[in-house]
From TrEMBL:
Name of this protein: KOW domain-containing RNA-binding protein
InterPro entries: Ribosomal_eL14_KOW (IPR041985), Translation_prot_SH3-like_sf (IPR008991)
SUPFAM superfamilies: Translation proteins SH3-like domain
Organism: Candidatus Enterocloster excrementipullorum
Domain of life: Bacteria
Amino acid sequence: MAEFKAAGLARSLAGHDKEELYIIISVQGEYVYLSDGTRRPLNKQKRKNKKHLQAMEARNEDLEKKFLEGRPVRDEEIAGFIRAYKQEEGKKNV
């Protein structure tokens, strides 16, 4: 089972954003701060309870390294990773 860790991918299981994919920015207790790079950019992160999310195995090692080193991450990098994951997921379902 996947863990909630920074730079990991998470799918929303409940709420108006059900089935949306996000990158985990940080984890604080039972809450996770998320961004998708577009509707929820880094400066407007979404706070969501862990019980309403599914942590996924996919993670972006480049983003993880940047988070750990404290280097800036761009919204375009987050959106690009999610877009690439959706395309890859679509290929597997065909």
